[in-house]
Design brief:
It is a single chain. The protein is mainly α. The longest helix is centred in the middle third of the chain and has 32 residues. The chain is elongated, with a radius of gyration of 25 Å. It is a multi-pass membrane protein. This is Respiratory nitrate reductase subunit gamma. It is found in: Cell membrane. Its main location: membrane.
């Protein structure tokens, strides 16, 4: 089971991610979208969407730093384990709470606005459950080990995660990891595999050509230079 969860599942999730992205790009380009429901309701969306997106960006940034910045690098800048733990605890909890609040508002909007609710699919519901599960488990794992210096995942989970990119993951490092962290990692991998098959695929989109396209110039037209308007087709008027 250890080899399956920590040696095989990460690569299965990555393979499903890449395969899904390729499939969506080749056969479902017009579906590569957020399927925005703003046309149905915008007031709540204008609040919930920024809250969720800012929260999830902070969460992702925290994970990148925690997993891929070695302990020796942070210690070089004078950040010891206790200081890092406090930053991770308070910063990570705040980012998670912001994300959960955004998801809560989005779900409330979908449930209470009839047109938006009718446009909600089973895929959307699964997406929200996975997002809430991943974020909630991460917060629970952190808060469950909030005392002292907390659980030092940078000496177990982080080296294992970095080893995945060299194709040499040390699965033994994950055997002593607290259960909440393990479940959080598994749900996170499932979420990664699910991304290209949901509206979350838009996170891989970037309007790069927009940066290099020529300017679009809009000019008003002189009415005197306009040609005569064609007669409107329709029934001919009878009588004087």
């Amino acid at each position: 089971m250890t080899v399956l969860l920590w040696g095989a599942l990460p690569y299965i999730a990555f393979a499903l991610l890449v395969a899904g992205l390729v499939w969506r790009y080749r056969y479902d380009k017009y579906g590569w979208t957020t399927r925005s429901s703003q046309v149905y309701e915008s007031r709540l969306l204008n609040i919930a969407s920024p809250v969720f997106h800012y929260g999830i960006l902070f969460v992702l940034a925290g994970h990148l730093v925690g997993l891929f910045v070695p302990v020796s690098w942070t210690e070089t800048f004078g950040v010891d384990e206790h200081a890092y733990h406090l930053l991770s605890l308070y910063g990570g909890t705040a980012a998670g709470a912001l994300t959960v609040a955004g998801i809560g508002l989005l779900v409330y909007r979908r449930r209470t606005r009839a047109p938006v609710f009718k446009a909600t699919t089973a895929n959307d519901k699964a997406m929200y459950l996975l997002l809430l599960g991943a974020i909630g488990l991460g917060m629970a794992a952190k808060l469950a080990h909030a005392g002292g210096d907390g659980y030092d995942y940078r000496r177990t989970i982080a080296p294992w995660a970095r080893g995945l990119f060299t194709l040499q993951p040390d699965t033994a490092l994950m055997t002593g990891v607290p259960v909440l962290y393990q479940v959080h990692a598994v749900v996170g991998m499932v979420l990664i595999a699910f991304v290209p098959y949901s509206r979350l695929v838009h996170m891989f989109s970037a309007p790069v050509p927009y940066l290099f396209r020529p300017y679009v110039v809009y000019r008003t037209r002189d009415p005197r230079q306009l040609g005569p308007r064609p007669e409107r087709r329709g029934w001919e008027r009878l009588g004087g």
